[in-house]
Amino acid sequence: MSPLSLSLLTILGMAVATYASRAAGLMLMSRMSPGPRMQRFMRAIPGAILASIVAPSALAAGPAEAGAAVVTALTAWRYRNLPLAMVVGVGVVLVLRQVI
Amino acid sequence: MNTQMQQPSAGRLPFTLAGAVAGFRACVPVALGVGVYGVLFGLLARQKGMSWIEAQSMSLFIFAGASQLISLDLWGPDLPVASLIITTFIVNLRHVLMGAALSPQLLRLSAGQAFGSLFFMTDESWAMTLARYADDKRRALASDGAFLIGAGLAVFVCWNVSTALGHVLVRGLDDPGRYGLDFAFTAVFTALLVGLRPRRCDALPLIAATCAALLTARFCPGKWYILAGALAGGLVAAWGPGSAAGLAAAAQAPEVRP
Fold it and tell me: What is the pTM for the complete model shown?
């Protein structure tokens, strides 16, 4: 087998693995009726994933990032405008990284 | 597979071009941020000796930034095929929970619409769609099932164009951190978390998720921290203090299942 076709087959395998992970959640949920505990588990998942994505880069990266995350959160809470919150967050982190 | 089978009470969601366009437009700012990392991926792939066809195939068919970047570590003349595929699956395990979280809406689409849309589910398009559906629900608006595929396509286009740019054109890349661009994702996901408007009863699961994510990020490489935090948050919600009271509410709340 030529190196290119082996690498393309590997990439295909990785693509199948990735798609399996994307489809698995829906396949599981379509086959079971979750009980009350499972419902509470599932209802907590979206917020928990978002908090987990944010936590290391907002809280463990340094004071500039932590400060900018707080300002971003306040902006999002007050104005409910995602692009605005993004621009404010990037701006504040730039300034704080210079200052701190 | 007939995803409608166990959801007899749920009506179909509309799946319109307008819904896809709304998703696309909502996701464009974040997708441009993704593009910065696509350039980085293309550039690193070339430095690793990966051909343009290989790098572009990855972005077209795998379409998952974290696992593509991690796979560059393993890429070499003697391809560790099994390690690459297994690592990819493990890095992407968080998708299982993400897909499950969108299932109330996805179960109200045809199987083709739902499983087609899921190919385009990334951290970014998932979060935008979730936020949109939460907002629809709060304002008692009808949701459009095509939002996810639209949002995902915005990311897909940016990721693929930027992969090509990075591999073919760019000959050197500044550190994204220099312009604060690395923080754009943190800002977006922070804003989306705030947009879910967590209530007091969500506090403990969120704290558990945050602590678990911080600990895992400290000690494990890769994206394990997302899965660890999600599971911690879910387990505390299901079995932690106060869950008994909430359980009764969950059992009665009609909106939990479509």
Answer: 0.81
Number of domain units in chain B: 2
B186 and B217 housed in the same domain: no
Q: Is residue B4 part of a domain?
A: no
ipTM score: 0.88
Q: Which of residues 28-87 of A touch B (CB under 8 A)?
A: 28-31, 33-34, 36-60, 65, 68-69, 72-73, 75-77, 80, 82-83, 85-86
Asked if residue B249 and residue B129 are part of one domain, the reply reads no
One-character DSSP codes across B106-151: HTTS-HHHHHHHHTT--HHHHHHHHHHHHHHHHTTPPP-TTHHHHH
Domain contains B1: no
The amino acid at residue A87 is V
Instruction: Indicate if B65 and B179 belong to the same structural domain.
Output: yes
- Encode pLDDT of B79-138 as tens digits: 889 989 988 998 899 999 999 999 999 999 999 999 999 999 999 999 999 999 999 999
Separation of CA B125 from chain center: 6
